[in-house]
Design brief:
alpha+beta, 6-stranded mixed β-sheet, 5 helices, globular, Ysc84_actin-binding, YSC84-related protein
Length: 186
C-alpha cells in the first residue's frame, strides 16, 4: 500500500462517516409519520410566511412535496438524504425519502429544505406512479428571492417547480439534480 492508497481510503471513510453523522438529525430512525408530519407542517408555515407567493402557488398546484431537511455531506464522495411528505389540497397522502450520491471535487456538509410544486395532473401522476422518481429536465428551479412573487408570475405550463431554501453549512450551493425520490412507509 502506498501513501496515495492510504489517503484515498482514509478520505472515503471520513466522508462516509461525516455523511452518517450528519444524517442523525434528519429523520433517519425517527418516530415515523408523526415527526415527519410535524417537520412538514413547520416547513410549510415557514415557506408561506417567508415567501408569501408560495402560498398562492401551492393553492394552484395539484400537489406539493415538502422535504423539510436534506442533509448533504461529501469528501470526494458524497451524498444527501432526507424525508418528507406529499400533500394534496393540504392533506398528507404519501411519505417519501430523497437520496443522491455524488463523486467529484467536494468537501463539506450542509442542510437545506426544498419543496416540489406539481403544477399539472400528469406531473403529479408520473411522480406517484413510479417506483422512484428523479428530478430531471421537467423541473423549473425558482430561487428564494423569487419566493415573494413566484405564485403570481408562474403559470401551470411548468410541470414541476422546485424551490430550495434554508441552506446552512459549508458546501456552496444546493441542487436537486440526481436526487431520487422513493415512497416510504415511516
Amino acid at each position: 500500500m502506498d501513501l496515495q492508497d492510504g489517503f484515498s481510503r482514509r478520505g472515503l471513510l471520513m466522508g462516509m462517516g461525516a455523511l452518517a453523522l450528519s444524517a442523525c438529525n434528519n429523520g433517519v430512525g425517527s418516530n415515523g409519520a408523526a415527526q415527519i408530519d410535524a417537520r412538514v407542517e413547520a416547513t410549510q408555515n415557514f415557506l408561506f410566511s417567508r415567501y408569501p407567493g408560495t402560498q398562492d402557488l401551492a393553492s394552484r398546484a395539484n400537489g406539493v412535496l415538502y422535504m423539510p431537511l436534506m442533509t448533504e455531506a461529501g469528501f470526494g464522495i458524497g451524498g444527501a438524504f432526507g424525508r418528507g411528505a406529499l400533500r394534496i389540497r393540504g392533506v398528507t397522502v404519501d411519505y417519501y425519502s430523497a437520496a443522491k450520491g455524488t463523486i467529484g471535487f467536494q468537501i463539506g456538509a450542509q442542510q437545506y429544505a426544498h419543496a416540489l410544486f406539481f403544477m399539472t395532473p400528469e406531473a403529479l401522476e408520473q411522480f406517484r406512479r413510479g417506483p422512484g422518481w428523479a428530478a430531471g429536465a421537467e423541473v423549473r428551479y425558482a430561487t428564494p428571492e423569487q419566493g415573494a412573487s413566484i405564485g403570481k408570475e408562474t403559470t401551470e405550463l411548468d410541470p414541476v417547480i422546485a424551490l430550495i431554501f434554508g441552506q446552512q453549512g459549508l458546501i456552496a450551493g444546493a441542487t436537486l439534480g440526481g436526487v431520487k425520490y422513493t415512497r416510504i412507509i415511516p
